[in-house]
Amino acid sequence: MRDDDELSFGYDPIGVCIISPDVPIKVVVYGNRLEHVAQLIFTSTENCSDPARTINAENDFKVHFEHRAVFDLSLPALPENVHVYKMCVKQKTPTNDGILLPIDDARTWFTTEHPPRQHYLPLPIQIGVIAFFLVLSALFSGLTLGLMSLTPMELELVQKSGSQKEQKYAATILPIRRKGNLLLCSLLLGNVIVNSAISILFGDLTSGFLALFISSAGIVIFGEIVPQSICVKKGLAVGAYTIGVTKFFIFLTFPVAWPISKLLDCLLGDEYVAYDRKRLMELIKLNTVNQDGQLAEEFKIAVGAMELYDKVGKDVMTRIEDVFMLPNNTILNAKTVAEIVRTGYTRIPVYMTGDKNCITDILFVKDLALLDPDDNFTVKTVCGYHQHPVKFVLEDTPLKVMLEEFKKGDCHMAIVNRPNGNSFDLVGIVTLEDIVEEILQAEIVDEFDVVTDNVNRTRRKTVHRDLTKFFEKEVPDASVSMQIQIVAVQWLVANEPAFSEQYIDRNVLERLVRTNCKKIDISALKALTGKDFPVLPKTAKLFTKGEISDRFILILEGRAVVTIGQDEMKFDAGPWHSFGNEVLRKMTQNYSTLSRSMSVADGKDFSARRPDLAFVPDYSVIIKDDCTYLEVTASSYVNAYRATLMQREMGKGDLHSSNTSLNGLQEEMHISKQSPAHKFPPNTRSPIRRIQEEAPVIPRLYANLSEARAAVKALNRIERDRREELEDMKDEEQINLLRTKIEEEHDEKF
Question: CA 648, CA 99: separation in Å to the nearest integer?
Fold first, then answer.
């Protein structure tokens, strides 16, 4: 007979089946001629007539064959002093009066008494062994994480740079840690052995899911979580203090661990972790961050020096839009020098006039030390004398390469270009200071810097010397070309009644035009990338909305920006646009009183002028480019009107025909243009004589503005041809003159 229920306890030493009381079990009976069994009786006494359970073959047998029968059985707990249930068999008969026969085979008996549980060890000793194994499991688990997470290189670093205790710990652990695979195999083998032993011993103390739960909880909590959390932070100290235990278990597991470790060495190679530059840089960043999340100041230089090898020119360059440059035809007068000083730069790129993409020279501010601004040398002349080298690099050139070039001392500025097909586009500049700032990880600001950040263009919040006075001087009279004067006279006569011969004599008008032409020269400001200028001279403000004015302005060359209306609408005004016509209308309306008011002496004192001849503009006119204009104030017009009256009173009004005046103006311009410093070669016609001979006949009056512009264009073309012929000769003369002046200044000082 066999018990198939999992809830049964088992068999005692003599073969009695031990079951739990009142728990159904499935019983399988094996034998011969089982088909003749009619009934099975289970009794706790020697009398088969006192059954505890009765099993009818017809109703209770689930399987009933000749050699095998299956049925379910549930027995109550045995009475006191009774130890087994015995089986009795009743055979089938036609009359159903068979005899109950007891079976004395112990293998057919059942008992509900459980024998005392037997353990591997006495209970206290077994519990102590389990606790000891939990400690070993914790030790192996903690050492596996703590020791194996420390590489030999890290231990060497600790041994050389750690505290005295850390150096001692590292020196103790390092010899064992160098044999990484052997240490790992020994620790893992020991951990697996003790964990298995813990499970077995717990299973001996209890059974089922309880044993599984207790052993798993003990191993996870006391053998994994607690030791690993400790050894993550204190692994160096724990490993040093338990080095003896570690060596002992290496010795115990050596026969198994050594072959496995050698196999791992052959397959995986030696353990070696090298710190390249990037890893070392990131390691410094991760371990030297202050409370604000910023890199500590003392480590910025080290990180900056290492990052330098990963950066290229475009990462640190100053964009070309933010670079202060000068065209090579810029006149180095007082205003230009003042603007150069204002910007604070010591090296200024110089580009070919009209093409900012073509850098030709580098102007050093120290080159201006011995120059007199009144000499009006051009930038091209100064750069042609000094000839500083210009270094060009591509935008992807590494900074370490640029630094090596700068260290040679040939130049400390490089022009950054970007390939564009067969040509290159200028994108920015890189200086030695930019590279040093990348190494220091900070902006270097000296006493002359205006901008403290090349990326964000942050301006310095300090007070600098006020150099605006260079730009606020009165605009000097400008000498314009003869043809511009001719056309200006004709335009005034044709478009403004106030300049007709009724009021102003032609010769007087010609002198008025010649002596009142002004020029705003802001070529130095225009070099600031063409954007809004940081400095706008007061003289560039021709009219201001709401401010009284008594002057008439006629644009001759260049452009002005007009702002009008409440919406501040803006438009450009080019040549032959006029402003302040209200002043001229008031002049003609009050011409009878002009001879009795104002004199030449009150030309600059507005308080002494007549307010009835002024007006208040409802617009503003500002010059943002080089511009030449004719300015006629109320006082200058009155003086011209009075001069006309004086000439006519002297009886010379018949000499003022238009042809005579034109020829007179041309002769005056011819005489004034000739100077000893610019004499023309023998047998060479001057530009003005050449214009007189080759230019078409200039009509006395122009019907409209387009005809006036066409005439000026024709005259300019003739004069430009001659100027191009003399340009090279004049540049050479200026360079020789500059060389002579510098040598004289040097001899005087040294």
Answer: 176
